Amino acid sequence: MTIRPQIFALFVGMALVTYLPRMLPLVVLSRFKLPPLVLRWLSFVPVSVLAALLAKELLVSGGKLALPPAHPQLLAAVPAFVVAIWTRSLMGTVVAGMAAMALLRLIL
Amino acid sequence: MAASESVTISVPTTFAQGVRAAAPVMLGYLPIGFAFGVLARTTGLSVAEVGLMSLLVYAGAAQFIGTGMIGAGMAAPAIISTTFLVNLRHLLLSTALVPSLRENAAWENSLLAYGITDETFAVNTAILQGRPATVSYVSGVHIASQSTWVVASVVGALAGQMAGNSDALGLDFALPAMFVGLLMPNLRGEDRKARLASALVAAAFAVTALVLFPGNSWAIIVATLVAATVGVMLP
To answer: What is the C-alpha to C-alpha distance for residues B156 and B38, in angstroms, rounded to an integer?
Structure first.
């Protein structure tokens, strides 16, 4: 039940940069409008971050390309994608990915 | 106008009405907050740190992404910059709430702003439809929602602590699988071809950068800036 000082500082930083975009339009700039191009650019940010992080998890380990069978992450992602596309269930996707990973560890 | 006005429900005003309005948000936050707690434990955060993060940061996708970067040992400035990028979209939500909240004092709105999420925004705008809202009502929605998020993530962290051999259960793959689940809704609907292109550019850029510069904390954020810019330039 400990809180490391550097983690605490990190969370305060994350909280600050999360709070500002929530607060500024409402409190300071109640009549300002973002340019449409900025709005559109913002809408591409989540998909880009998630794809970059997912690719890192699936394909890179220790600064090298990490492929099956030694690194089964890419294979385990297949059932997760299938469930995500068919059911749209976040929990189902996570469970499918975990089950595939556990199974692949037994087989490979 | 007259017809549509006759079917709209009256504006809820009390804290208790806000809590009741938040019920669907709370129902949604229970499993996701729980999952976050379990996953955050696998990246080495303590139970108290999980609760603190949900209390201070309170942003689902950014918390999943942030814990993934903490687990990968990335530097704090890179994690904070990525969090900023991911949560910049709250500008849109906050702007859209101005018509309902502009009559409140600035200090009241500065507190209410803390509770703006995709989900509380959806509930508030559906019910208020641009009509003025009381501070009590919005506080009810926001406090009920965030309390649920914090409690669910702490319970998940406690459950994760008891899970034992997490690798044999595939728990180390829970976070990548969560990224799959969060990514897919972005690849549907309007602009999906441009979004898919962004995703592929981001993935290729990140992998290339991380192989060329192993462990570089900025690979993810630079990949994001490049990919979002490519996406926005596509027709």
So the answer is: 5
- What sign does the dihedral B148-B153-B158-B160 (CA atoms) show? positive
Question: Which chain B residues contact residue A101 at CB under 8 A?
Answer: 170, 172-173
Test the A interface: residue of B91, B207, B218, B233 with most A CBs within 10 Å: B91
pLDDT band at B4, cuts 50/70/90?
very low
Alpha carbons B223 and A38: distance in angstroms, whole number: 18
In which residue are the tokens 């689940």 written? B181
Return the number of CB contacts < 8 Å for A and B. Answer: 291
Alpha-carbon gap, residue B83 to B55, rounded angstroms:
15
- The encoded tokens of residue B63 equal 């918390």
pTM of the model: 0.79
Tell me the C-alpha distance between B27 and B164, whole Å: 28
- Give the residue from chain B lying closest to A15, CA to CA: B57
Our CA-based measurement puts residue A67 at a distance from the nearest CA of chain B, in whole angstroms, of 12
* Cα gap B150→B51, rounded to integer Å: 6
ipTM of the complex: 0.89
